[in-house]
Amino acid sequence: MSTPEDVLRNFVRETHATHVDGRLLERFERVTGHKPHRYLRRGIIFCHRDLEGILDKFEGGEPFYLFTGRGPSSDSLHVGHAIPFEFTKWLQDVLNARLIIMLTDDMKLLHSKSLSIEAVRRYDIDNAKDILAFGFNPHKTFLFSNLDYVGGAFYENIIGVARHISVSNIKIALGFGDEDNVGMFYCCSTQSAGIFATSFPGILGTDQEQLRLMCCLIACSYDIDGYFTEVRKHTEKLCYSKPAFLYSSLLPALQDAHAKMSASVISSAIFLTDSPSMVRDKLETAFPDGATDTEALFQYLRFFVKDDQELEKLECGFQSEKLTVKDLRAALTKVVQEQITKFQEDRVQITDPYLKDVMTRRLLE
User: 133: pLDDT confidence band, cut at 50, 70 and 90?
Assistant: First the structure.
């Protein structure tokens, strides 16, 4: 069985992405004046495309924007979903950048026949409030639902992209087959239209030529790269700038370092709505006393323990047998409980009027 490290190495080799190395991190800190986020320092954000170009624009005072999204399929995000949003919030602060957040509800409906439009609409609201609880700057952030926004300039870009992408290439990039519905093949174009600033006239700007030249930076998990692969091939043909990417690894499922945490598999995930006792019970079940396979436990510690010295102390303590699995689990439980409690306190502040304001089309600062 391939290890998680093997999977990441294969991704870099097969997609020709570039490793995030010490030289790039040094430049990032020099240009922005901020120490790189722990995800960057620890290799959780492990590779990129064209981040150097974004730093060039930042140094030169040229405009760019951040782009991210979420496919709503449950009434709460889990801690794995939190990773790109926490990191994107940090990027927005450090780069003083505008941000577009897309709810890909159309994709979820096409990928799951069991989901109703009414359920996805309800998930939209719950997930949108979860996302905004990460503290994005409301004056620099626009959040929208695909079911509501698609049309006009956005739809023009969907069509512009779609006419260049072949069905055979989508089958390769996303693993779709003849038995999949026709809408799934089209999702690639819909998801990718957001990488063009011209999809957001009156939001990112009003000058059409400036919007055409503006590029974006996307922080996402590596497993959704297929939705952008084909579009990236055709950006220059469409007279647009290529988007930049920062790719993260995936937080593993509880009890399985080789599986992805999933909102549809309740036992695999810690949800942002979980109580402190639920967090404790799930972690005790996942990492019992005396466990010999500690790979997933250490992955969780690297994701959640913010202080580098504290993390090193835990790792060295376990290696020297001064600390046990129980000790490591206790440390992990404490930081996860603290982060979820803080999130829940912030989530209460996201009212319906606040959500409406962020989802209103207007020129971002």
Answer: very high
Token couple for 281: 């019970």
Phi-psi region of 13 (alpha: psi -120 to 50; beta: other; left: phi over 0): alpha
CB burial of residue 334 (10 Å; 0-12, 13-18, 19+): middle
Determine whether 40 is exposed, middle or buried from the number of CB atoms within 10 Å of its CB (0-12, 13-18, 19+): buried
Q: Which two tokens stand for residue 59?
A: 């140094």
Query: What is the DSSP-derived secondary structure letter of residue 238?
Result: T
187-202 pLDDT per residue, tens: 778 888 899 999 999 9
Residue with tokens 């010295």: 309
Which residue would you say has higher pLDDT here, 174 or 39? 39
Q: CB of 203 within 8 A of CB of 101?
A: no
Cα end-to-end span (Å), the chain: 49
User: How far, in whole angstroms, is CA 151 from its chain's centroid?
Assistant: 25
Tokens of 252: 């593993």
Q: What one-letter code names the amino acid at 44?
A: I
46: helix, strand or coil: strand
Q: DSSP string of 171-214?
A: HHHH---TTS-HHHHHHHHHHHGGGSGGGSBTTTBS-HHHHHH-
What is the average pLDDT across 333-343?
A: 97
Scanning the structure block, which residue is given the tokens 């599986």?
A: 259
Q: How far apart are CA 124 and CA 359, in angstroms?
A: 12
* Burial readout 16-36 (b: 16 or more C-beta within 10 A, e: otherwise): ebeebeeebeeebeeebeeeb
Write down how long the chain is: 365
- Would you state the structure tokens that stand for residue 21, as one six-digit string? 């190395």
CA proximity to 318, closest of 306, 307, 304, 330: 330
